[in-house]
Known about the structure:
The structure holds 2 protein chains of 2 kinds. By secondary structure, chain A is mainly alpha-helical. Helix content of chain A is 72%, strand content 3%. A two-stranded antiparallel sheet of chain A has the order 1-2. In chain A, 53% of the residues are buried. Chain B is mainly α. Helix content of chain B is 64%, strand content 2%. Chain B has helices at 2-12, 25-50, 74-90, 94-118, 127-140, 143-152, 169-188, 196-216, 257-281, 283-293, 295-300, 305-331, 341-354, 359-375, 381-397, 406-414, 426-433, and strands at residues 237-238, 241-242, 249-250, 253-254.
Amino acid sequence: MEHCFDLLTSGITPEGVLQQLINGIALGSIYALIALGYSMVYGVLELINFAHGDVFMIGTFIIFGVVQATHAGPEMTFPLLLAVLLLGTVLAMVACAALGFAIEKIAYRPLRNAPRLAPLISAIGVSFVLEAWVTTYVSDRNHALPTLIRGEWPIYGYVSVTNVQVLMVISSILMMVGLQFLVRRTRLGRGMRAVAQNREAAALMGVNLDSVISFTFVIGSALAGAAGLLWVLNYSTSNSIGFLLGLKAFTAAVIGGIGNIPGAMLGGFFLGLAEALGAAYISNISCGFFSSSYQSVFAFALLILILVFRPSGILRERVSERA
Amino acid sequence: MNVLKALEFLLHGPFGDYPVGGLNFGSLLVLCWQVAVFGGLYLAIRILAKRGLRVSIPHVRLPGLAGRRPLRDVRVLLAIALILPLVEMLTGGYYLTVTYNVELYVLLAIGLNIVVGYTGLLDLGYVAFFAVGAYVYGIFASPQLGETLHATFHFLVPATVGSGVHISMLVMLPIAGLAAAGFGVLIGIPTLRLRGDYLAIVTLGFGEITRIFAQNLDTPVNITNGPNGVVRIDDMFIGGYSFGDIANHIGPISIPPFLNYYYLVLLLIVITVFFVARLATSRVGRAWTAIREDEVAAEVAGIHTRNLKLLAYASGGFFGGMAGAVFAAGSHVIAPESFQLFLSVLVLCMVVVGGMGSIQGAAVGAVAIGLPYFLSSQLASLRVLIFGVILVLMITFRPQGLLPSQQRQAELAETVDDGTGLPHVEAAADLRQL
């Protein structure tokens, strides 16, 4: 008992918690970006696009390849480095967008009126194809970039925010604001909202279903490509990150209320925080019974709890009980 | 090996010698080749399909079975299954292992078919049942339990218990099955309100959680022995007959261990099919079908949906758990890596490719996917790639599966899309012609 008390009191410090909060928000911003892709597609098609996480994974590899091919490193001058990263991001976004477009066309469009199980299976198939392709032809190991962007801001005690983390949070928020503008203020966005509300009625009103759905996939996948940049700046990538990250991002989308863009953002940050804090302190809280190797369990447990107790998410959107 | 060469050329074109792997231009060249070749093929097929080309999958008709479709005939399937390993023994042991693996998947597919095919509960965590069965058997039938008990309660349990508890398979198989069935109910209770995709995701989560727990439950009390897995698991035995004994023989013919397991699984399959086929046409089975078609209507019609859904999970879990126990005994070692999400997906795909809601369909799907999959183990990750491609093509061109249940087929033919976006199936009916 005393041992547990020690764990609780000495293990958890304000500095530690603050640092985990910062890490969690940075990680959450990536979850949020990927979650947007899930959320938009689910909103429009009511389909869980299992392949989305793997599209993201391919984005990370493209940026990695660009950085490696240009021999970029921290010793490069800043403008040059920026140019390389921008080039990588643009390439990754374009490639991911093309991939998303092709996936929708090949794997989902023929199944638009099929029983609901069919597109799900198809999505799983695409996910396996993408992951296995990278495993076979690119790499089956972990790859990490050297620290390209250095520098950090001290906050309190030993707690600090790195420049990369600042970049992650700011750029993801910018992208989400841009997306929100696109969906709320443009003609295409209006089409997306109409299709999300009622596909048939939208089609009758003259919305071009095919192009709206394609566009949704293109936007979501491009965001996943951009998320790829933020990911490789801070974490290592491998052929197998796609599925798990995709699932976590989907969890984020569900937490926020699927089909809801601010919700996806909120859910992403929430999940990032829960994971960072949970992984760091589960051992202290559970008296050493659980360890940080249970990290992935948090996302799943959260997902199950949310779906069971509040299936419409934090920002109450849509009804979840669909046959 | 000419097949492999041809396959390699098809996949890599002239760039096969380019160093592939790592981030280099070889993979880019291969990508361009594949996009050109397969994209072209795909477009050609789509265009031809639009022009009115019709390809239907021919029904195999054997002479002497006039008018019958042999793959639907249980007796034919059973006869093949009985004779196959004897033929294979003549060619050495390798194919026997493959057949045995496929057979385990047949059992899993038939079990999952209860949950997915009959009741319409999309379960992506079936591997959890398999794992529970395997671990229950593994822990009881290996020194693991005794050692853990001794380490935890060393003042009560002497070290001599460490040699393990040896119980006949007549007891252990049902125990493993019941444990998995109980686990099914445990998973089922919180997910009763969920449907469709959400259910799939939650069950997937449970499957992964099970694996992660299996991986980490070596502390504080060593239950699963963590990532190293449970080792030194007993063979199944019944009376004095051990399945793993290489000295077993009938007359002058010796019986290799795998043959024992093969016939054990076959027996389990026969029992399973017997029960499932009875169940499917019973009151319970009809209630399951009603739940699959429209849960609200079923409930209104007086069906106790909660209990019946739990029963579906439990019976699906029971067969999965027994398969897990046999797996554990046959391989003597189980580790968390054996219970990846991929296994759930593989089994689900077998059910879907075979045709949901049909026992023969599940069996044929398991063979159609499992056999090439296990035979091509030397292709490593490439076979997963090919598996994915086949899966996508299969589901987009023939969504009802190879051998759909006749009842379901009839329903599919009747239903016309009424514009509500609800299932089905005008499009599917069109695609079937393709």
